[in-house]
Input
Amino acid sequence: MEGGLMNRYIGILLILPFICSLFFMSRPVMAESSGNEIAFQVPLLQKGELVRLTGEWEFYWEELYEPGDFLANTPLEGRKITSIPHHSYGYEAEEGFSSKTGYGTYRLILQFAEEDIGEIKAIYVPALSSAYKVWVGGELKTEVGKVGTSRERMNPNYLASTIPFRVSSKNIEIIVQSSNFYQRKAGMYDPILLGDIETILQHKTKKTVFRALTVASLVIIGLYHLFMFSFYRRETSIIYFGLLCLFVGLRSWLVEEELYGVLFTSWNWEFTTKLEYFGTTFGIAFLSLFTYKLFFQEMNKYIVFFIVFVVSIISLVILATPAIFYTNLINLLFVIVFFTAVYLLYVYFLALVRKRVGAFLHAAAMMILFATAMNDILYFSDNIYTTELTSAGLLVFIFGQAVSLSKRFANEFSKNEKLSRKLKELNASLEELVNERTEQLKRSNTELRIMNEKLNQTHKSRSKLISDISHEVATPLTNILAYTKGMLDGVVPVEKKYIELVYDKSMYLSKMLGDLRSLLYMEAKQVKFEMKRVNIRQYINEFYEKNKYSVEEQGIKFTIEDKLAQYQTDFFVNMDEIRIEQVLLNFLSNTQRFVQKGGKGKITLIVSKQEENILIELCDNGTGIK
Output
């Protein structure tokens, strides 16, 4: 299944360039110099054929001539011959000027066949940098921007023009005024096309539709992945891919003059040019970050950071400088594009060698993108005259990435389905486990009930034991009473053996009573206190005297503070002397442990009255009990 999908996709990749070429097909015919004029022999065109008006044109540097200036039919001063297409004004500028800034006039004579006279023809004028005016047959047909002799006197714009005209005579004159003081491109860097009005309109429509489909596809894919990221933020490659699509789509919109006129014609030219270049710089950055997220094991993160850093610096330069400056950095941008494309191609092939998931699809799409990027580098650097193809290459690449991402998410969805089934099975087994545990609890409750019954039986047995002990106490007690009564009455002689017998019976009775008392205490869970009326001042002073020596022997100063002395009376308290002494000894032991060391320890025993109560305190200068 996967292999068939890849094969179909690669077939689409191979067919797409041929489909794209249909949008730009035209018949090349070169203009030639003939005497004092540049004559262009227009051939008889078949239906659907276009002619590029390439070759030699008359050119007048720093002159803005109109049709009336050529009525004498003689060459005017400053006449030069230039070759079209050309990315500059086609000659070496004088000292202090650049051949890519300035203004001038182009002129060409179209020579039609007799069969074409009276027919409606049309020319398609691509966007010329950075403003132009066109006359056909002596009539002003269009003006894009404002042509001027200086930067201050002109206004740039970026629009193509479709100009229909009637072939009224054999020779039809075309005059084009052009000026540029705003960017690196100047003159006729794309040739004018000639053909029937239907063919020109079809060419324009095909070109516009192709670019519109490209832009729409990129924007839809970009927005789709941005929305996907809003629901699945863990996968950051999604947002990088979405932003890549949007920036490439923005650039594709701006480089197509027909689409540019749909939305941006009223926008500031300088601003839209910055957006076009941002589409390239940010596209490089997000493409690198996206690739790093996919194949981080094959891609060096420091190279990624370097690429992002360099394009960020270039973006800041674009933002801060006018187009006449940053557009001349195009060669630097080409170097970065070339380096990035080569490195990413290496990463994708390395991932392919290591058999990463989706690497084959990525590598195939990257080869297409690399080929179109090389075309644009050569095209925009004036080495070849084709057209901009990176947008189409990026569309192919992005379509490939979208297929790969879709496949990844389909696999994740399949995994989730498997996990859901396993979870369902686990829930079923868990339910069985809960039932089993419930049965175990029932059995435990039954065992606990049995144990309670046994405890109750034990309690009854203990009560019976106490009853038996009480009953057995009566026998030795009766014997003791009998022997002592007999001794008193003189019936039993007072001899040692009888006295020992009474003593043994008494010890036996004492032991039985002790056992009974301990058992009763355990049953009641309480200890019996021996309460008596105690003089508390005397009691505390005796406690102090008994423990003073042992405390001070440890190097601790032990003092007493009797706040009851001020009342000049004695205070009595009902208490168990032994239990209270145990409590006080416990507190005293703790204060000795936490008092300051090194002979600085101090403990004070304080007794005072608070309302109806007596308060006994042991205070130390240590850290306290934690």
Summary: The chain is about 55% helix and 20% strand. Residues 1-15, 17-35, 92-98 have pLDDT under 50 and may be disordered. Residues 322 and 549 are 97 Å apart (CA to CA).
